[in-house]
Amino acid sequence: MELKKKNVLITNIQRYSLQDGPGFRTTVFLKGCPLRCPWCHNPETQDSAREIQFDLEKCTACGACVQVCLTKAICRVGNNIIFNREVCSRCGLCIEVCSNSAREWSGQEMTIDEIVTEVKGDEMFYTSSGGGVTISGGDPLYFPQYTKELSRCLKEELLHVAVETAAFCKWSYLEELCQYTNLFLIDLKTMDSEKYRKVIGTSLEVVQQNIERLVDAGASIRVRVPVIPGFNDSEGDYEAIAAYLGKLRNRLKGVDILPFHSYAWKKYKLLGRWDCYQYKNTESLQPEDVIDLAKKLKEAGFTTANSSLTIGGLT
Ligand code: SF4
Ligand code: SF4
Questions:
Q1: First to last CA, the chain
Q2: pTM of the predicted model over 0.85
Q3: Does the C-beta of 154 come closer than 6 Å to ligand 2?
Q4: Handedness of CA 248, 209, 207, 22 (dihedral sign)
């Protein structure tokens, strides 16, 4: 087993997750994503570099960080501490001196051995619930070699492995991963290529081709549809998504409708991205808000009875 993989950072290892695949899951979040969805629920996983989270609510304005910062990225203005990320060199000195944990790293290096050892601590929960480990992010396919190696090692430990991805990557990356992955959780955000390119900045055709190739390869797939107000929640959007998935129905494990939620607001603040967060005034959707999409997917042959259709993911 390769012991050290540099440059891939982990933002979180979340235990007892019930919505990232079957049973109790431990979800490993990799830091880095080729997409920039403006509603992203995990903005700390977009940038592959380590970032500093600054929590103004914990800051007592003691000024210790101002004293140690060599680039003058931090300054005091009256009783306020101002952090200019543009001149921050990410040296971390301010984190070391902050006794209030108001400044923290997002993203830590972990060896694959360390991850495997940590997730194996929950093995009895996987066994009793039919669960396992989900590799998420960010996007694991942004780090194809690392993800392949991590999946291989997890499989070697006889763990159920799910990989959550937007499938915007070379087909060969997914193809190689198939042998080590029990389940792919693939995001499908819209069927409108122009909108996909304009808002997400990349090609929907690549995603569609990858989904279809995975289906042809016999991979086990759940497609996840995030429902985002103003982006993909029109009747036309729902019809197009249901029509496309309906054609693949017999070869998909299922579809999970994921209603938009606004819980990520604090993360945007901690990362200094609050001003550019477009969904700061958008309220979370409730399951009843996505019922029209659920109806269309039911008409296309998916059903909640056998979990081939869920709102919120498997529980
Ligand atoms: S990480 Fe270094 S450069 Fe950035 S604010 Fe902290 S002390 Fe200053
Ligand atoms: S060291 Fe921590 S508590 Fe003190 S001013 Fe800096 S961020 Fe605030």
A1: 33
A2: yes
A3: no
A4: positive
- Report whether residue 133 contacts ligand 1, using a CB cutoff of 6 Å: no
- Rounded-to-integer distance, Cα 83 and Cα 96, Å: 16
Residue 5 scores a pLDDT above 80? no
**pLDDT(6) > 70:** no
User: Does the CB atom of residue 93 touch ligand 1 within 6 A?
Assistant: yes
Q: 173 falls in which pLDDT band (50, 70, 90)?
A: very high
Ligand 2 atom nearest the C-alpha of 81 is 5
309: nearest Cα among 241, 232, 231, 207: 241
What does the pLDDT look like over 186-236, one tens digit per residue? Answer: 999 999 999 999 999 999 999 999 999 999 999 999 999 999 999 999 999
pLDDT digits (tens, 9 = 90+) for 277-298: 999 999 999 999 999 999 999 9
Work out whether the CA dihedral 200, 201, 202, 204 comes out positive or negative: positive
Are the beta carbons of 44 and 263 closer than 8 angstroms?
no
Map out the domains of the chain with their CATH numbers.
9-48+108-311 (3.20.20.70), 53-103 (3.30.70.20)
Per-residue DSSP letter, 305:
T
For residue 157, what are the contacts with CB-CB under 8 A and spacing of at least 6?
116, 120
Pairing of strands 221-227, 9-17: unpaired
Burial class, 44, CB count within 10 angstroms (exposed 0-12 / middle 13-18 / buried 19+): buried
